[in-house]
Specification:
The structure holds 2 protein chains of 2 kinds. By secondary structure, chain A is an alpha/beta fold. Chain A contains 9 helices and 10 strands. Chain A has 2 domains: 169 residues, P-loop containing nucleotide triphosphate hydrolases (Rossmann fold), CATH 3.40.50; 65 residues, no CATH class. Chain A starts with a strand and ends in a 27-residue tail after the last helix. The relative contact order of chain A is 0.16. By secondary structure, chain B is mainly α. Chain B contains 10 helices and no strands. Classes of the chains: A alpha/beta, B mainly alpha.
Amino acid sequence: MLEVVGLSKSYESDGRVTRAIERIDFRVEELEFVGIVGPSGAGKTTLLKCMAGLLAPTSGRTLLRGAPVTEPPPELAVVFQDYSRSLFPWFSVRRNVLLPLRNKDDVADKAAVADEAIRAVGLGGFEEHYPSQLSGGMQQRVAIARALAYQPRVLLMDEPFASVDAQTRAELEDLVLRVREQFGVTVILVTHDIDEAVYMSDRVVVLSGPPSTVKEILDVDLPRPRDQVATKALPAFAELRARVYAEIMQRGDGPAAAAPADAPPASSAAPGSRA
Amino acid sequence: MRGRARWLALEVGATAALVALLWLWTDANESYAVAPLGDILATFRETWLFAHVGSDVVPSLLRMFAGYGLAVAIGIAGGFLLGSSAVADAIATPVVSFLRAIPAAALLPPAIVLFGIGNTTKIAVIAFVCCWPIMLNTSDGVRELDATLLATARVYGFRGARRFRLVILPAVSPRIFAGMRTSLSIAVLLLVTSEMVASTNGIGYFVFQAQQQFAVQDMWAGVLLLGLLGFGLNIAFGAVERRVLRWHVRPDGTN
């Protein structure tokens, strides 16, 4: 349903060209949960912005159900890392969730949809609060409710839990897993947290970088529903996270040794050719 | 709550003590320039409650609000223009820097030559001088608009007038209010100055005339009124600001 085809983006400043992402290819199926994981500063956010239509790629394109994405389409919502800058602090929780729906002609009872989303993230009773009256975790719940009420087919999440404490993080991870089934939405999660990517995803796209290229795409065959304790105790979980970790650390000695990170993406340099 | 009541008691008590001291000192003072506070208050009641309200207070306030209102309109419009266009900003910056560096009082003689001594002069000078703080604050606010906020607006389909009304204007409003607050005290200052230099009525004119005629009690009563006027305007402005920006949490964590 969502296809990323040969996506590259480079920035130019003072005559110097910085390549952020390079020839990224992958596709996401309907209702799939795909984690995109890579080292910090590897251009993950750039990739997400290009996919959302917020940033024009240098070359390549993103197709959403066959149509090229050039502007953020109404079938797509984004949850940003920085909830405090993403929520509108001058509106109540309800208005934050409700106002974007003006853009959706196909949603009949907008107020009911907004209230359902607010309840789904566990914020029933906080409708009239302002964001500044809520904790960080609750604010990110509002952002998630806003995205769900928008009834997107695809939900892009950019490091959505990076600014909350560890326990809240686990709660929000499980919340997203729960509501994505309730609302029937395809999720693409960008994160630097390997555990999180493996725990939540059906597949994990491992990026190298910078510049970011796709190193490997791993299937995560862990049973659902996932559980913070039981799932993470599975040998398969440990094995998957070790493989992703090895890929990201650019080591060839992991359980699934792949092409060295600094090799051009098209070529397949022999192991041991790294500097 | 107990702590708050204590601070309030301290404020009221200290003010009352100061007034009492002032009362005693002005009573004992023999200088013709210093009128006893009791006499000043009596004059204040005779003059401002409400004999001279229609002839002096109302014209003054109308001038001030006309000039200030114009400054707000010009300041916000100009601020958005300069903030959103780098070209406009580059063209305007040297001019704006020069214009706002002219001492406000120096504008009065040319304004009188241009507009006479009617209302136009005062309104024009107040509007001219008061628009700069609002314009510069607004343009800074527009330039500092957060990238994530703008991206959010784009993702959720806020466009055109709706984007401006629901996202951009609220986001810049704390800066607009900061400029408006600075400009409000400048407006009072310029109102009084312009009325002293070129007027046939108004509070500033009244104070100046009282001094010229050695009506010391009238003069002090006028000064007292101006003080109360500035004080009241600040309180009223604060109330409006708290109402409009009740969502706003300043970086220091206070509302």
